[in-house]
Design goal:
mainly beta, 3-stranded antiparallel sheet, about 20% strand
């Protein structure tokens, strides 16, 4: 999500056995209340910057260190 800040928390929901793609990304940020539109696994990822630098293709992974705590509450 290039329109969101670098390091922002993102989420995605996908059916079991399917990995999420960019089109599945949901902005969470510091907090979010949402109603899931489908069932499946809940994934979290940090918004990162991709690069086309052929000399350093893993640049966007190079500086990734740290962690997030996420509290998820599920209700009917």
């Amino acid at each position: 999500m290039p329109e969101r800040g670098y390091g922002a928390l993102l989420a995605a929901i996908r059916e079991t056995g399917a990995l999420p793609g960019r089109q599945d990304a949901i902005f969470i940020g510091t907090s979010a209340n949402m109603v899931a539109q489908k069932s499946g696994k809940l994934y979290f990822v940090v918004n990162d910057v991709l690069t086309d630098d052929k000399d350093f293709p893993d640049l966007f992974l190079f500086d990734n260190i740290g962690f997030y705590y996420a509290k998820v509450t599920v209700s009917k």
